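Priority: low. Protein: tRNA(Met) cytidine acetyltransferase TmcA. Input follows.
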Amino acid sequence: MLGQQLPDWLSAASAAHCRLPVVFSGSNSRLLPQVQQLLQHYQPDKLCWIGPGAPAGALVPSRQHKHLGTECDWLIINAEQGFPADLVAAVSGSIKAGGLWLLLMPEPEQWIKQPNSDHRHLLPYPLDAAKHQGDFLRFFYHRLQQCSLAWLTPDEVLQAPSFSAAKASEPAPAPYASTEQQAAVAAIHKVALGHRKRPLVLTAHRGRGKSAALGLAAAELAQHDKQILLTAPNESAAAICQQHFAAHTGTKQQALLRFLPIDVLLKQQPHADVVLVDEAAAIPTPLLQQLVQAYPRVVFATTEHGYEGTGRGFQLRFQAYLQQHFTGYKQLQLKQPIRYADGDPLEHLLFHSLLLNLSEQDPVWDGAIDALQLLKLSSGQLLKQPELLQSLFHLLSLAHYQTRVDDLAALLDNSQLEMFALLQDDDLLACALISLEGELPELLSKEILLGKRRVQGHLLAQSLAFHLQQPELTQQPMARIQRIVVHPTLQGQGLGTELLNRICAHYQQAERLIGTSFAVSTQVLRFWLKAGFVPVRLGIKADQASGEHSLLMLQQSDKHHSRLQQLESSFRHQLYDQIPAFYPELSPALLKQLVTPPQQALSQLDYQALILFADQQRPFELVYSQLLLWFNQHVQDVPAADAEFCIALFWQKKGFDDLAKRFGFTGKKQLIGQLRRMVATALTTPGSA
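Result:
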């Protein structure tokens, strides 16, 4: 049946410049022979296959592989044993016009009830992916039924495809694929040839030609002998740009475009007339900030959609930074599809079934706390209220830099995940995700302590047992606040505090130990400290996406008061000793909030040395030890700016050249002069000694 229908359907898709989405349902024993015949007949140049039964020569993508900037002709998803939603979304975006998206689905009534083994990474212990029945497959199936796609069995066609929504794009002169792409290339030229320090940001959903625009612009700039550097999360993500550059330049000009990984580029900082950054949202924000400070002409292109969970973070973090530091920065959005027509049925299918269409309507709150309604939601309730589910997922996407399709799947599949929604009338104002953890068997807790076991989905318990050597606490019921989100237009008005207070009251009544872990910044830390949470562990490695370290905090409770007080004190004191080895680049302002430095009394001789230093009668090197002891005693008393450079100097052991560059001093002499003034002021202030 599929072989009979497919030629006409593929022809119609090609004529409409669209992709063809097909659901082929039935037993694998009947589906796979027909698919194999099709592959022998069509022999697509680039076939991607997800699931079991991949033929020789097919590309089998993995969750670890990044798919932005890549292309394929056919994607076949064998969903007999599972359906990896996040991976399917990522790879589906790479299919070219005239290509095929083929979902091999078991009988629907069987499929929506079966366990989804491909979501095992979303399920916490002790849920067994081979047995656990979640709600995502049921949700996805119902959403598919609302889409325009071909649906057939080995015996009959249930629904024929339709391309009536497809719209032809406005023609553009060669080599451009659209007028928007032409405008993007012109904007890149302005960055390279116009005023300095006016970075450009190109944003688009997938398939809009932004990577090609980078390559075309680079080719035209090479005609003017411009030196161009290209960077991306990995070189494969820059492949489209490189291909378009190579296709439009001669042999002599090929060397004018160089690809360098972002870390190498920042370390070497070679000369460039312009730097192009493809898929910028997948690069840690601090690295992007370093790049735009180091080079006066930079173009950032990024996929703003949530296929790979990075685009929204780029808008939330980096573009806010550009607005603050580069008043002349420009943004250009490419809306016109190039890889396929506007109104492409597969794009609609993905956006609709995976809730990837973000609402542009902002909620309204009148400021009345008493009018707020708190709802505790289960996956079953969300399945029955798709509008609320869509609002919840959209809010998570708006407010967090790593929201992806996996997060939608977790909402529906992870029964240990509890959701809270704060509403006024029907408007969702804020939400929170809570992971129920702990209650681990004693033997398992001991194995975690010894490093013999890691338990999926129990971050709080795992860290308490292994890092903090508190295995007995892992046997307690816990609630880890994964995310607490307030709509961006309503932040700073107390909604986050109100939501957190209500959630904590709920779990305190249930006698759960409440904790959280997040990428820490000074502002976010203040929020959690104000709510009565205490820090107990700081991650050694910075988060790849945010560039920030993860902080584990626990809420004080009567039941665990003395133990949590001890954990906090131990953490704050040990962190001081760990700074030079593990946190030399951490924000000094953050260290000021977290560290309790050792206290050692200064003698009269020590104070005399400090007075002589302040009076320019002793060199810095001779009074270093006294300065360190004095600063440790008064770190919370000195002005914030002075405290930060002193932390970098004394705690992080930074050299004078580094300090001068970082804090705006002309050199060692000016920096030591500031130290002398700071000490002189402090020693003449009553009570400062």
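The first strand starts at residue 20 and ends at 25. The two ends are 89 Å apart (CA to CA).
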